[in-house]
């Protein structure tokens, strides 16, 4: 009987040690979960702020297009140099503020066109077309 009591006491001590180890693991896992939850909440807040900013930018650009189309007709070619500079400035700000997003949204050729407009908005519409833009084959389409 004494032997059985000693065996059970040793088994109880072993189980008590395992319980302590598991409690430590649970505490560690709970801390990791709390940290991950806090990080996720921070990311959601950042996303919501950026989304709000992007929606405001889109609204401002839509309003600018509406105003420009009312005052200038359907052509940006008639823009005075001061307005072209203002549009280029707004485009520059949007491209620098949202560069990461625009890298995936715009093709390299679109980025190149936008950058050339930003660099010289007053000359952009007066520039001579490049060979590729002005070339038209005389023989028609080739099948």
Structural account:
This protein is mainly alpha-helical and 143 residues long. 80% of the residues lie in helices and 0% in strands. It is built from six helices and no strands. Helix 2 (81-97) packs across helix 4. The N and C termini lie far apart (101 Å). The longest helix has 71 residues, at 2-72. Residues 131-135 have low confidence and may be disordered. The chain has helices spanning 2-72, 81-97, 99-105, 108-119, 121-124, 131-134.
Short key terms for the protein model shown above:
mainly alpha
Characterize this entry briefly.
The chain has helices at residues 2-72, 81-97, 99-105, 108-119, 121-124, 131-134. It is mainly α. Helix 2 (81-97) packs across helix 4 (108-119).
Topology of this structure?
Layout: H1 2-72, H2 81-97, H3 99-105, H4 108-119, H5 121-124, H6 131-134
Q: What is the beta-strand fraction?
A: under 5%
Structural class: mainly alpha
The termini sit apart by: 101 Å
Average pLDDT, all residues: 77
Order of helices and strands: HHHHHH
Low-confidence blocks of residues: 131-135
Number of helices: 6
Helix content: over 70%
How many strands, which pairing sense, and closed or not: the largest β-sheet?
A: none
Query: How many β-strand stretches?
Result: 0
Query: What is the molecular shape?
Result: rod-shaped
How large, in whole angstroms, is the Cα Rg?
33 Å
């Amino acid at each position: 009987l004494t032997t059985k009591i000693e065996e059970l006491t040793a088994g109880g001590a072993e189980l008590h040690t395992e319980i302590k180890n598991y409690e430590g693991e649970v505490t560690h896992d709970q801390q990791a979960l709390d940290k991950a939850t806090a990080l996720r909440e921070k990311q959601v807040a950042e996303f919501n702020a950026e989304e709000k900013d992007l929606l405001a930018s889109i609204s401002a650009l839509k309003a600018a297009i509406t105003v420009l189309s009312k005052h200038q007709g359907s052509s940006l070619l008639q823009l005075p140099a001061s307005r072209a500079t203002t549009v280029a400035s707004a485009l520059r700000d949007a491209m620098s503020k949202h560069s990461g997003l625009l890298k995936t949204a715009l093709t390299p050729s679109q980025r190149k066109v936008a950058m050339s407009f930003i660099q010289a908005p007053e000359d952009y519409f007066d520039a001579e077309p490049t060979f590729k833009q002005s070339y038209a084959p005389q023989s028609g389409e080739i099948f």
